Amino acid sequence: MSGLPSIHEFREVLLLDSYNTRLVVLATTLLGIGAGLVGAFLLLRKRSLMGDVLSHATLPGIGIAFALGTTMAGGGKSLGILLTGATISGLAGVAVMLAIIRTTRLRDDVAMGFVLSVFFGAGTAILRMVQSLPNAAGLESFIYGKTASMVAGDFTVIAVVSTLCAIAVIFLLKELTLLCFDQAFAASEGWPVLLLDGILLALVTAVTVVGLQAVGLILVIAFLIIPAAAARFWTERLPVMLILSGVIGGISGWLGSSVSALLADLPAGALIVLTAASIFIVSMLFGTARGVVPKFIDHRRLQRRMGRQHLLRAAYEILESKSRPPVNGPILRESLMEHRSWTPHQLSRLLAQARGEDHLEPTPDRSIVHLSESGFGEAARITRNHRLWELYLIRHADIAPSHVDRDADMVEHILGSEMVRALEAELATRVQVPLSPHRI
Amino acid sequence: MHHEHPPDYPLTIHDLTVAYQRKPVVWDVELNIPEGKLVGIVGPNGAGKSTLIKACLDLIPKTSGWVHIYGQPYRENRHLVAYVPQRESVDWDFPVSALDVVAMGTYRSLGWLRRVGKKQRAAAMAALDKVGIAHLAQRQISQLSGGQQQRVFLARALAQDAKIYFMDEPFAAVDAATEQAIIELLKELRQRGRTCLVVHHDLATVAQYFDWVVMLNMRVVASGPTHEVFTDENLKKTYGGRLSLLDHAAEALRRR
Amino acid sequence: MNWTSIDTWIVVTGVLCAMACALPGCFLVLRKMSMMGDAISHAVLPGLAIAFLVGGSRASLPMFLGAAVTGVLTAVFTQWIGRFANVDRGAAMGVVFTTLFAVGLVLIVQAADHVDLDPGCVLYGAIEFTPLDTVRIGTFEIPRAAAVNGTVLLLNAGIIVLLYKELKLSAFDPALAETLGFSSAFLHYLLMTMVAVTTVAAFESVGSIIVIAMLIVPAATAQLLTRRLLPMLLLGVLLAATSAVLGHLSALLLPPLVGFESTTTSGMMAFAAGVLFIIAWIFAPRDGLLMRRFGRLQARELEI
Predict the structure, then answer these.
(1) Which fold would CATH assign to domain A295-427?
(2) Is the CB of B22 less than 8 angstroms away from the CB of C302?
């Protein structure tokens, strides 16, 4: 089956008509949800690559379990036996890793790399050896997954594990949050940090092991990392991040396997990873809480607001230098530029902005700037606030930094009206708009 | 040598030695802290102040000796203790709000599996109010200033209503207003009969803040009321170069 | 055991490959970037696939270029995502290398129609077949894999000799190195490129997955035994060579012992390296487990 799928094929996949498709799509969706949920806590615990280590470390166990199963029970390919072998081997790998970290100078990353590579190497050696045993074909699906040939047993196991993950995450939400945020505090409170880490590890192992035999090594690692990392960009609230992570994992599984079912010559695992990666890229760029683009937009908005304030204040100060109290009148563009060292281009942009806010009167001569009535009023207000902030900083220098929010237009809001009145009283010996406490 | 350790004291320590990788960090510590004191723990860098606190809270293993809280091992009397770790021990980029963090102080009373409810949230809000940042309750913690973050940590401890508080460098890198606020809070705790042990780095303010001081440099140089114990001589013993002998001994032991 | 000249060549290729890997591997370990080595070895796959699609065969030069580029891209993307999007470094690495690997898988499946390329071979290598593919150097016929690995070994050694003090400084104190004018970024990406190129050179022999073992494990073992850079490099290379020899020997001797036919040399090489590590772990003169046990007894005696 190659070339573009027909409408009939589309329908078949979307509505999960064929049994096989249904199995694969549902299984990968559920796996995505479970992995997304667990992966979120892995990310927060800063152990994202644990899935990498675990999945590579399961290989020797799979080989040995198969060999033992075949020679002893005569049926080595049973899912249960293989999964047990994988689990024991994976956990042994983690144990070795922890032992290395505890008893040597070696760092985390070296211990992880060691376990990952040695176990995997040993695993491939064992798998090659047992190739000659009956029924050995297909053991290598642990690398690539066997999404195409999934059976009901695979699906059941995945469904069970994903449900367990969801339950654990719901009931242990506060315990796992505490563990990830402040381990020392948790320990001092009597929470069994080792046990909680163990539970997290158990969940990761379960997801890894069942995912491994279904969708292969790389996909399982990706599932545990990418949806969580993507979800992080959309929210600063942990429960939301958790749900989002599960949803993204589920969507990746569903979309990836559906597309793979339609275009049969593309490996499902790879497509699912690519789907997740696309969602990640979109999230990284546009995520409302931490995305690159929203942050950039925020930054620009701040710059614009600062620029606006600077412009109006500069105009006001120029008018002040001409007459006291200042009166609205024409201002030379040149004077503005000198006052604050803008480039002509920057100034033009700010002036255009001010025009858009109705703060400028139109002038026939381009070298002259004239504030409108509302512009003049706004300039006065901004200058007054700015001067009050400066005075506050000087008068109350020892406690100011914790209160100053130069960004806020409403001085009263931050300092309280009493404080503002006191400051204004102090400056009242001067003029309506307090003079700047330093030379301009 | 026989040491007295009254069981009604909030903190008693006997023959405590803690070692990292075979090098002793804190040794032969004997300490009795009476109730209702504001205790400053001072000493040079690397003197083992944080280690001492962590050993009291069972966060690191003891090589020898014991620590009792009101006469019992920490395990039994955990509920009487509140811990404020160093601010840098935590990643403040974590997706939780100030209220969420303070509510963590109520987790132990909730127990396993139960969720944070109205009562816990109210207690957390009250604690936040106590430290003056109730208006920041919903803010994500990375958007707080250093002083505000320290107040969040403090509020979390307050929410536990403990009888003895262990604080690790609460005044580190904090603005003057926050430092004021914290000291006021600690004094209020003392008035209510609580005991506070504070690892402190600024010698200039010790006499002003604390009525009891523990001077530590790998072993306890002195411990007692500030006006008695915080003397030039003791300061020299704690911070001066005389200690190099002890340092050498420790190194020699490790190298074996 | 039937030892032929083929076996000798296999061992030679393995030794050259392992030694070539151990050199940049030491620096990966020192800079706490072991997992980056794992990431790069997974991520070179698309580079290889593209090279095949473009080159149409297993021609060496496009392959190396493609791999080098993807290797550096892995490092670059990981840095970007980690720094500008504020993502945890391990997660950033995971996102990048799994995605690139997936891209590579898709491309290889496509390319397989045009080129004789077995995905399993890419992953595990087939060192057993390398002696059959020879090139002519002067008057000698040597396996291409050996020549390639030997060249990369010389290259890596050359770079390290030339830039020894810069690499040493930037491994221990990147900030100082930066202020002294040695661009940390340049050295960082140079190291990543070395890893990528070495991975490609090795993939024919031991496969791109096992290469991570040769990068990390001898270096880690060396780190258990010494605290200085030059001894670490030399020990790392020596241990790597030993693992290669032991690996092939055990690949021949072990299976019959357990009643099987044969096994991969590459897998056994990784395993042998691991065994050497464990020996060092237990018996290391200062930090080994045995010494610690013994030391603890001594300390306790002192207290009495």
Answers:
(1) Arc Repressor Mutant, subunit A (1.10.10)
(2) no
